[in-house]
């Protein structure tokens, strides 16, 4: 009798199990505990109130900032809705700012300054809630999750130039999209809403394309509902890419990039400013030069390195991704937009173009959060990590408190009401159009008198 050798049949579930193991390593399912449901609307309301009622925030209710007026509001007032929504600016789409401007354009013109500030605060507070919800699988410690989400609202570098204006929302949206791409939830509703969130983010920021590798990694996830987020990101990427290929982005670089100067500027703008804010860096640098920034970088790397010592791989992935994105973003911002005012020795040091620090600082603090998330077993180490958490919290709290009474971020000069009043008077004299001036000094836009209230 001859024996016929047969190969064992392939287990159709083996591929699924393999993908589950990989997915569980890099994209753990959200299992973190959370506060009661009533806490979410309370936290949202408190976040919006903080952004609008701090000294700098109150000035945004009465002043319009830069592109908020001369680009987004102007287009919303003078162009058809569809045309205004899909019009590229500076070489790419800005879907979320344009949506906000379209809503504000439906309000009486004198309300525009408050409408723009409130809409920006609402979006930013929403991003904080998204980050908290999306971090459930990656971060087990509830206090660390709360801190990661709270930084969207409290981050010192985010509460001066980028405060309460729609033109700078993309920095916070980018951070929220990062967490959403790492999130994995069983809820179909969550995945559908998250897909919409990443679509809006990618069509609002060209820098979101840096998240393509993370979105591509989600293809390993075995659940069909997991791919909703991937599909939303892919669709947004395609739309943004078509817009970018079809328009020209003017160069903002005014000369050859000073590479050493850019590196030193980035060192102050991210590792140090993340903990102290740009205002404190401007005070420290003339006295201490680079040493505090070097110490901040070394301390950050030391905390992030904890994820490599016996912790889950997802923590190491989170820390590595945070550090890498932080470095890539500040490098891209400084190199693509290089000008003498960005040099480390420029007046006010890193306060010029403070917006470039927002996303890099958020990602850097993400790496810190990954390192502080899990307490090691030995009691002595547990005390050390708890001490590090409280020390970090104390530094960030001090930076927030130090910023509140200062003048950084406040908008002075003629208010939006002054501009509208002057425009009404101008149009009453029979002109066809009028000019509305807003902040900072030198920004304005011409508006047909038909759009000015009588």
From TrEMBL:
Protein's name in the database: DUF2029 domain-containing protein
Record-annotated membrane-spanning stretches: 38-57, 109-135, 142-160, 166-185, 192-216, 228-247, 289-308, 315-336, 356-372, 384-404
Keywords annotated in UniProt: Membrane, Transmembrane, Transmembrane helix
The keyword Transmembrane helix appears for this protein: yes
Origin species: Solihabitans fulvus
């Amino acid at each position: 009798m001859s024996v016929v050798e047969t190969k064992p049949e392939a287990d159709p579930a083996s591929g699924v199990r393999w993908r589950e193991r990989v997915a569980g390593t890099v994209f753990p399912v959200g299992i973190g505990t959370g506060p009661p449901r009533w806490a979410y609307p309370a936290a949202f309301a408190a976040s919006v109130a903080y952004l609008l009622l701090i000294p700098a925030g109150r000035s945004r209710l009465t002043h319009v900032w830069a592109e908020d007026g001369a680009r987004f509001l102007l287009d919303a007032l003078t162009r058809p809705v569809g045309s205004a929504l899909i019009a590229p600016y500076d070489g790419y789409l800005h879907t979320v700012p344009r949506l906000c401007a379209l809503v504000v354009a439906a309000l009486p013109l004198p309300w525009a300054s408050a409408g723009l500030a409130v809409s920006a605060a609402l979006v930013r507070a929403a991003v904080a809630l998204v980050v908290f919800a999306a971090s459930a699988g990656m971060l087990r410690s509830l206090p660390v999750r709360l801190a990661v989400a709270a930084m969207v609202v409290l981050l010192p570098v985010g509460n001066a130039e980028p405060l309460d204006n729609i033109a700078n929302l993309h920095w916070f949206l980018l951070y929220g999209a990062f967490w959403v791409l790492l999130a994995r939830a069983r809820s179909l509703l969550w995945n559908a809403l998250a897909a919409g969130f990443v679509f809006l983010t990618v069509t609002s920021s060209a820098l979101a394309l840096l998240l393509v590798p993370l979105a591509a990694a989600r293809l390993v996830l075995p659940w069909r509902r997991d791919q909703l987020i991937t599909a939303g990101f892919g669709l947004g990427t395609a739309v943004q890419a078509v817009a970018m290929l079809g328009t020209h982005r003017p160069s903002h670089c005014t000369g050859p990039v000073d590479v050493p100067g850019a590196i030193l500027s980035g060192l102050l703008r991210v590792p140090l400013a993340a903990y102290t804010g740009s205002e404190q860096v401007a005070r420290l640098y003339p006295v201490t030069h680079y040493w505090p920034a070097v110490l901040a970088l070394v301390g950050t790397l030391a905390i992030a390195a904890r994820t490599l010592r016996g912790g889950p791989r997802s923590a190491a992935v989170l820390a590595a991704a945070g550090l890498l994105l932080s470095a890539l973003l500040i490098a891209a911002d400084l190199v693509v937009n290089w000008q003498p005012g960005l040099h480390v020795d420029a007046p006010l040091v890193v306060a010029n173009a403070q917006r470039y620090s927002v996303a890099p600082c958020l990602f850097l603090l993400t790496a810190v959060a990954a390192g502080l998330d899990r307490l090691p077993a030995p009691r002595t180490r547990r005390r050390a990590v708890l001490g590090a958490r409280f020390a970090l919290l104390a530094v960030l709290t001090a930076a927030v408190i130090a910023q509140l009474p200062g003048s950084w971020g406040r908008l002075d000069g003629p208010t939006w009401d002054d501009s509208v009043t002057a425009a009404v008077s101008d149009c009453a004299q029979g002109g066809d159009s009028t000019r509305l001036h807003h902040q900072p000094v030198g920004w304005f836009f011409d508006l047909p008198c038909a759009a000015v209230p009588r």
